[in-house]
Amino acid sequence: MSADIVTPDQPDTALADDSPAVPPGREDAEIVAKTGSSLLDRLLNEQQELTAVERFAQQHDHGGLPAQAKYYSHLIPATAPMQGQQYAFDVDLDRCSGCKACVTACHSLNGLDDSEAWRDVGLLVGGTSQNPVMQHVTTACHHCLDPACMTACPVDAYEKNAVTGIVKHLDDQCFGCQYCTLACPYDVPKYHSRKGIVRKCDMCSDRLSAGEAPACVQACPHEAIAISIVETQQVIEDSEADVFLPGTPEPSITLPTTTYRTKRVFPRNLLPVDYYSVAVQHSHWPLIIMLVLTQLSVGAFLAGMALEAVISETLSAAIRPLHTLTALVFGLTALGASTLHLGRPQYAFRAVIGLKHSWLSREIVAFGAFAGVAVLYAAGNWMGPEAVVSSPYWQSWLGWGVATFGLTGVFCSVMIYAFTQRTFWSFSITATKFFLTTGLLGIAAVWLTLLVLSAGGDPAAAALVLEEGELICRSLMACAGVKLVYELAVFRHLMKKQSTPLKRSAQLMIGQLASFTMARFAAGFLGGIVMPAFLLSSVRGNSEPEPVVLIVVVSMLFLACLAGELLERTLFFAAVSSARMPGSLRS
User: Fold this and answer.
1) How many Cα atoms are found within 13 Å in the side-chain-facing hemisphere of 158?
2) Is the C-alpha dihedral spanning 284, 520, 484, 578 positive or negative?
3) Taking 50 as the threshold, does the pLDDT of residue 359 lie above it?
4) Can you tell me the distance from the alpha carbon of 455 to that of 84, in angstroms, rounded to the nearest whole number?
């Protein structure tokens, strides 16, 4: 509720009294004799009985309120939220004209860069050609009950005020991983590349705490934006009925608190004006390298252990040192590349802070443990187990530790993207792609080891090609074939009449990303099918392939498989599509 403003021409109720005026110079004793109390006592007693309106009037008369408070005092609550309540934006759609005064005010007050905005104005369109409907919508952070940005953040750079419910970003704590920009379904957190951190709307919390309205509330000429107090239980119940805005992310994901009101009945086909548009998303190339190379490293260790289970100890001892070293190098390279995605990599050590709730923290811890154990395991294979651990028995346990931490890290990678609840990044799709990449590149890494050993004239490599070359080739072809077919399945959504997120992803892959798509399947088919088939035909006759042929074919096989997976991961990021808040028309 808001307090009514007392205008200057109204009587000052704080000082009004029914007793006769006291002339100047009259002694206080005479006042006491007539009224039974001194003037000071009477004024103090009246001060205790002032209503909220009267106290507000006194503050106004004595300059205790901002000069413009009379224009917005009714747009902010008079009291703080109680238990089970919080502040929220209240938007009257019937008053919003799309003038973007709120955007300008927010931009100016917060000192944002030219290309930076914490509040946007979008458009909903629908109706018929005879009765078209167009509705402007102003949007900002929804200060959700269950903010995905806060849950996802690995460094606890977000906090939700226990009293007001406002979700604030702690700039000093942020190290610029940008995971919150992927986790928020409303595209609220904005990455500032120059500062290396993410920033967002905090409902001008400093202003609210001083009794002053946020910039957007003050600036709106039609009073379309207000701050209200909402019941958290009501927000939860409304989310069950999907009461928010048409065509936007489901409110059940994060429980947004913004209320959009209108007295009109909108047509059933009202949707964001950019609902059917598709746009290429940011590729995040450091993440592409990190994901592919970590999965290659984990897969190489696993493929090596699987191969050792079917070959003799003599052959195992011959390939194990080089193979584990190769796998380790790829893993360490991946972890180094991951820091390039941080805006402030010097604070990378903070990533473990969110271990209890952030899948990114869990991934970092899992791969950190994987790297540490892998270093010991590879060192033991090079220098002998006794140089690292007390016995070969413990060396074997180090190998199982590498496998366990590696698979845990890949699973955490899957959950990082599944947590965002984007259809293209669903658990089933992401897990299938990531684990098939792990297997595919792990097998290709075995061939890389054999190539290096063959180039050095190692007879063990030649024997292994003859003994297990067919098994390795068939395993690689099976893994590549399954993965390529699974990725092709997304194009079946092009046949659907509705514009689903997967259909929009498929449209991107055959449209703006067509060159990446063709290159991905060409590289995958070459490295996963053609080259292994050629090697398979060479080893079937129990004849060792010519060294030059082996070097050329295996080099092409490994590089094509690696390039294909890098391209697949590029499409994974660039072609993702999901529901979003109303935007503007795009060319």
Assistant:
1) 33
2) positive
3) yes
4) 71
